[in-house]
Automatic annotation (TrEMBL):
Domain Outer membrane protein beta-barrel: 46-289
Alphabetical UniProt keywords: Signal
InterPro entries assigned to the protein according to its UniProt record, in alphabetical order: Beta-barrel_OMP, OMP/PagP_B-barrel
Name of the protein in question: Outer membrane protein beta-barrel domain-containing protein
Keyword match Transcription regulation: no
Leader sequence segment: 1-24
């Protein structure tokens, strides 16, 4: 009886043994998945800002003065620019600006003479026929002479700044920049405004008509010259900015802008001379708007 029990137990173990892995497979350990982090939207405008500035050039090359009563001049010593920049961190930023620089126009007028020819015609008052006509070449008449010049320029500057910390809402900064300036000057020296004229004298039975004809009826342009060029420029800046709102800052600064190779026309004691090298020292007031 004991032998039969042992044989039965062995047979049962033999039958159930292959089923053990199958039963174990039905109870795999649970899989743990880490919870995904919360979605954080990306701020597209983060770090970028817009800016606009106006300035007044208190130091400039356009000190044109003349003692001639015919001297006249006008100048615009204000400049303006718009641009876009980026904050790299709390201390470093950079921007790219497109601007218009100060400009001027000036001129000098004098009394002079214009050359031409004079035709004298004598007409019979009764019949209306020409009784005589003569032409004199190389005659002159009084006219106005003038010289004029202008200077203007536009800039594209890349600037970098170091913000030196914020104290009670005020952030001092220093900076420097480099770029290109489109510079143009033009002048017309010795232009004359020659105007044809006619006069008549009624005599006894005849009318004498004198007509002056200019050599160039449209007038004389004079010695005309102009030059446009793209010149390297650099700048040094310093100033203070104040945080008005979360996104808006007011900027008050000083800028030294130098264009070493730029040429311009100046009035030198009655002469219109071309000089080289333009420098501006400017006080600027601007706004910056952060795009975040």
């Amino acid at each position: 009886m004991t032998s039969r029990s042992r044989i039965a137990s062995a047979l049962a173990a033999t039958i159930l043994l292959p089923m053990t892995p199958a039963l174990a497979a039905d109870y795999d350990p649970p899989i743990y998945v880490d919870q995904a982090p919360d979605y954080q939207p990306v701020e597209v405008g983060s770090g970028w800002y817009l800016r606009g500035d106006v300035g007044y050039a208190f130091s400039h090359p356009f000190d044109d003065t003349g003692n001639n009563p015919g001297f006249s001049h006008s100048r615009t010593l204000f400049d303006a620019s718009v641009g876009m920049g980026y904050h790299f961190n709390d201390y470093l930023r950079a921007d790219l600006n497109l601007g218009i620089l100060p400009s001027n126009k000036f001129g000098d007028s004098i009394d002079t003479t214009c050359s031409g020819s004079t035709t004298t015609t004598v007409t019979d008052n009764t019949s209306g026929t020409i009784t005589s006509q003569t032409t004199a070449v190389g005659t002159t008449q009084p006219c106005k002479g003038s010289s004029n010049a202008l200077n203007k320029a536009y800039s594209l500057m890349a600037n970098g700044y170091v913000d030196l910390g914020t104290y009670v809402g005020i952030t001092p900064y220093i900076g420097a920049g480099a770029g290109v300036v489109y510079n143009k000057y033009a002048s017309a020296i010795g232009a004359k405004n020659c105007v044809p004229s006619t006069s008549s004298v009624i005599g006894s039975g005849t009318t004498t008509t004198t007509q002056f004809n200019c050599d160039d009826p449209a007038g004389y342009d004079g010695q005309v010259s102009s030059k446009a060029s793209y010149d390297f420029a650099y700048s040094l800046t310093a100033g203070l900015s104040y945080q008005v709102t979360k996104n808006v800052q007011v900027d008050l600064g000083y800028e030294y802008l130098s264009i070493p190779s730029a040429q311009y026309v100046a009035y030198d004691n009655g002469l219109f001379n071309v000089h080289k090298g333009v420098n501006f020292q400017t006080v600027k007031l601007g706004l910056r708007y952060d795009l975040w």
